Amino acid sequence: MTVVNGNRRLGRVFDIEVQRILDYVGRGIGVRVIGAPGSGKTTVISSAVSSAEKTGFTIHSVTGLRTHRNIPYAAVKGLGMEMRPGRSGVLDLADVMVSQLAKPGKHLMMVDDIQLLDNESLAVLEAVRQQSFAPMIATAPETHNFTRGQLAVLNQGREALVQLDPLHYEQVHALIARVLGGPADVDTTARILTKSAGNPRLIVRITETALLSNLLVRRDGMWHMSAGTLWNDHLSGSVEALLAELPEEDVNALHSMAILGTARIDVLQKIVSPDALDSLERRGFLSVMDDHHNGTIAAISPPVIVDYFRGRRTLRDRHLLRSRIAGILESTPQVAGDETSTADCLSQVLSALRLERGNDDAVTARHFQDHSAVRERARFERWEANKTATNAAALLRVYWGAPVDPVRTARVLTETPTDDADPSELLFLTITKALLAIPAGGASAAVEVLQAFGDANPELKADAEAAMLFLGASHGRVPEQSAGTPEVGARTFEVLTQALLELYRCRPASALKLINDVENDELFPHLRPFIHGYALFAAGRVDESLVFALDWRAEARKNLDQFGVVTSSYVAVHGLLYSGYFDEAEYLMSSVFAMGRPGFVVDILYDAMLRLAGLRQATTSTTPTLSIASQARSEMPDVGPLPGIGKGPYVLVTTSDMQPTAFDKDASKLIKRQLKSGYVLEAKMTALLCTCLAPGRRVLDLLQKVLRDSGILVHDQFVSIASAVVETDHQLLGLLLKHYEPDQDVYQVGMLLRSALRGHVLEGDTTSAEALATASSAFAARFPSENEQLSFNTFEASALTEREIEIAALAGYLSNVQIGERLRISARTVENHISNALRKTGATSRTSLFILVGNTFPPQ
């Protein structure tokens, strides 16, 4: 396999950061790029400098080296400046460099690893910056304590800060695919993410060395792990490079922590000095988080360091260290963690989520994985020692949220005697057996298992029938008859099952009413909050749903409850996406993906989020990219009970003809299939999405019918505006927008207008495009949003160069010759730029291009 240069692999991961740097430099503003070791600082500035060079900048590069920081003038002499004999002092070198910066043209200074520059080179740069206005790009560690000399160089003139955060799951997925030449499966991607803590350099090195060590194999076009670990000796050098700047005390502290594992802060302070802990946290090697059971805990970051220390010492050394730690901890008291209050409004929960984004979600995922592995191992050993139904149920409950061990699950179900089992535990084992039958035999196979159980256990027949209804509706189709009102004395699981069916049928008010007087069920402890949270969303109470789901997720994270995290995140993601909080939604999904594929109860929600992430990527990207949705299971049906569970909407958007008429026809066929299966809620959400993507009469008629039959009135304003858009009744549209009262569909209305504008531009209908451009701009001005203003089914502004945008903005009312005279370029060059912009946007004329580009940016 050909090894590609690491910088090239990382380059596109940092497209946004590179563009930000270029924007600052273009305005004469310097940039300081900060991040942890291996975060990609050098890659980012190298890409930025390369792009700047192509636009006419002359680059003056200075690089710091560990081995040269005590050699006077080592960094600046690397510039190759010609000096007169005997004139090699600080001011002499500064004068030569200033004269170079004073030459005609645009100049840019680049200083990589400023913390490694020798003092004399810093003095030269300080003198240069005092005399020159050329912007400077510099890289530095995010936690570095700068010396006075370094600050003197950095703090000259205007400076912007660009922080390089750890990569999230979707970025890791794309980076691994570039290294391997194809996508990796969910578990491999999650393992590499958690081992590296999102560090780009480590991601590349772990992937490369795993391939070199035959720890990755390719099957069915996707890379999988061939063993239970990715650690190999080839990684030692990468970890040693990370630790190179640490003092010996900190290295020894990491070794002790690696043997101890994740632990409470008060426990760690008995093993490691507080100064060492503070130093490690300041340098980014220690991740601190709240644990509901244990209080504040800490773990090494990135976790691959743990593997390094556990593997590098002899077995005798590790045993001695473990014994020493055990002796110190022998009398350590176990203190329960404090309860923390949850947020009670949307702004608070969103602020908490954004604050969480700054933490290390890869380390958190590793903590979940370790916790689940410990529980699973302990409960399996307990079951092997005493194969009772109670011990079997305790083990299988782990698999309802955490990854499943199919061999152990099969053993437990076949070797556990059930003669004297408690009825509730017997029912749990049977439902688990039914769930395992679904992948091979479908919902009918699961129903057969439960049917036989109900016939053999009449006292549990009602619960078995409720389970049959639950699985049959969730994996097949919803019964046509109404759930009705449960009988008096109906068991909790029966009531919750009927409420879930009402949710599938898009009757959220009825679902909320059913669960109003019932508690959580022992079999499905998260079923009631799931119904409650998603019913609020389906009823149009989006903000309430978000507050509820994010509070629920925060509690589940503290309890290390992966089942609850996945379930609550699915509900929250829908509210975030619907409201336009795309960055928050992507982080939320990334944090779930990092944990790896969950157990067989919530794995369909995990796949659904993979498709939701891929759907957003597919509808906003202008160039073909490796979709994260490829990791979702492809054998799923086209329709499902809830959005994303069926793969139909994703396939529709990613493969259908996006011309409005053809898309409307294909979308209406899918929605009719969803309605035929009884999945009315999924049909409603599909129709809403498709109307925003490419408004058409067929889909809009189906949406109106679903809303009318379900008695849902919260989307009335949106439907009226969509009808005016579809009928191209611009006068009515203007009136509706003028009198629009903001509701939960503000973001959807903006998307609808932008997509309709795009459709008219593609069809060459200039008159309608002009009317929609005016309406869309006025709506955006009236309802400005703090969220990202993008429209599904449009081009990204970044796809056009700055010059192409500038020319497109003039193309609507000036000729090529006039544009050329204004910009001092030839008419032929103008024509080339317009041709490129037409190709990138899909516009059919220069007038359409002017309308489209002019409407891409909100009015000032």
Low-confidence segments: 1-6, 328-344, 793-798
Major sheet description: 5 strands, parallel
Strand order of the largest sheet: 2-3-4-1-5
- Treating each run of at least 4 consecutive H or I residues as one helix, how many helices? 41
Mean pLDDT score: 84
**Rounded Rg:** 30 Å
Number of strands: 10
Instruction: Write down the overall geometry.
Output: flat
How much helical structure, as a percent, in the residues?
A: 55-70%
How far apart, in Å, are the first and last alpha carbons?
51 Å
Question: Structural class, please?
Answer: alpha/beta
Strand residues, percent: 5-15%
Summary, kept brief:
The chain has 860 residues and is of the alpha/beta class. 60% of the residues lie in helices and 6% in strands. It starts with 5 loop residues before the first helix and ends in a 6-residue tail after the last helix.
Structural overview:
The chain is α/β, with parallel strands linked by helices. It has a five-stranded parallel sheet, with helices on one face. The protein has a three-stranded antiparallel sheet with strand order 8-10-9. The protein has a two-stranded antiparallel ribbon with strand order 6-7. Helix 37 (766-782) packs parallel to helix 41 (846-854). The longest helix is centred in the middle third of the chain and has 34 residues, at 423-456. The chain is flat. The two termini are 51 Å apart.
